[in-house]
Please model this.
Amino acid sequence: MRYAVLSDVHSNAPALRAVVDSFDANGVNSSVCLGDVVGYGADPVEAVAVIRKLCDVVVRGNHDNAASSEEFGGSFNDDAGEAIAWTRGQLSTAEASYLGGLPLSASYEGARLVHASPLNPGSWTYITRMRDATAAFRAFEEPLCLVGHTHEPVFYVTDGKRRRRREIPRLRMKHDRRYLINVGSVGQPRDGDPRASYAVVDTDEQTVEIVRVPYDTELAGRRIAGAGLPASLAERLTSGR
Ligand code: ZN
Model:
């Protein structure tokens, strides 16, 4: 089977639609989501509805957590906090409790799924350095762990002794290695490439591929402006930073 791994949709409906439209061309049979369905963008209700219907498994991100209850304001910067407060006002009680009730960690087709890190998933730590990846490798048993949260796609590989970090579009998994893979962000990429990012895992071929999909960033930006959300949240969609 070939399943899509979506993360950090962040209420960006134009990006999410473009990603779903690309599934057929990429032979995708099913999909999962690594959280941060909402936050930053202007379409939280559509993002929740699409992800809920589409994905076999969804885990909770820090923005989902914060949007689900005022108790979980969290440590957000001003723009993110403003977007979370606005998002809370858009979501129904049922949508908010759906997000708040998502699991922090799940397994799917032999892979571990988590938003930030398999090490204390609810503390939302960022895996940005090899040191973080080394600690994360000790916190899951499976050969493959899929994460999001940093919005930058990257592959970490270990043979049990050494670890390597690779920024490549595709790799074939070997039996004697383990993998920690960040699938990037559908709705707010930060690696300098504004195209939506997701991964396709092929369980027969044992490959993982990062797929990039162009979408109408101007439209998503206009929707953010129209919702009265901070202009910086629209601007970063066109820069991919
Ligand atoms: Zn995020």
